[in-house]
Design a protein that fits this description.
Layout lengths: L4 H11 L2 H20 L12 H20 L5 H20 L8 H21 L4
Helix pairs in contact: 2-3, 2-4, 3-4, 3-5, 4-5
Length: 127
């Protein structure tokens, strides 16, 4: 018996949910951050002040994906997770040749998480 189009789309919707996309996207960005950050070309890839902008974009995207993955709940957990990933990133950078730990980068990471969550809350405020 053939599967109806509606049945197939319903199964696909259950498999590819916004929460799954958000969580898999956040996991992918985190894995790429640590993998690519450990490559020799990463040293000096972004010069001041563009390195702060790169941090902001990556961690704002990570925050948005985690927000999507949690369906907009648990903002404090999201800030904690993003802060931990930022701290681990800086810790790893301190141990790589040509890289260094920068607390200003960590401050940008945490700020990106907070500002992104504020923007998302304003955009999706329930009235």
């Amino acid at each position: 018996m053939p599967i109806k189009r509606e049945q197939a789309l319903g199964a696909l919707d259950r498999f590819i949910s916004p929460r799954r996309i958000g969580n898999l996207g956040a996991l992918s960005i985190t894995a790429l951050l640590f993998f690519l950050g450990a490559q020799p070309f990463a040293a000096g890839l972004f010069r001041e002040p563009w390195d702060k902008l790169a941090h902001f974009i990556v961690f704002a995207t990570l925050t948005g994906l985690l927000w999507l993955g949690s369906a907009g709940s648990k903002p404090l957990w999201i800030i904690a997770i993003v802060s931990l990933i930022g701290a681990l990133d800086e810790w790893c950078q301190a141990r790589l040749p040509g890289r260094s730990m920068d607390m200003a980068d960590l401050a940008v990471d945490v700020s990106a998480a907070i500002l992104t969550l504020i923007a998302l809350r304003i955009m999706f405020r329930k009235t």
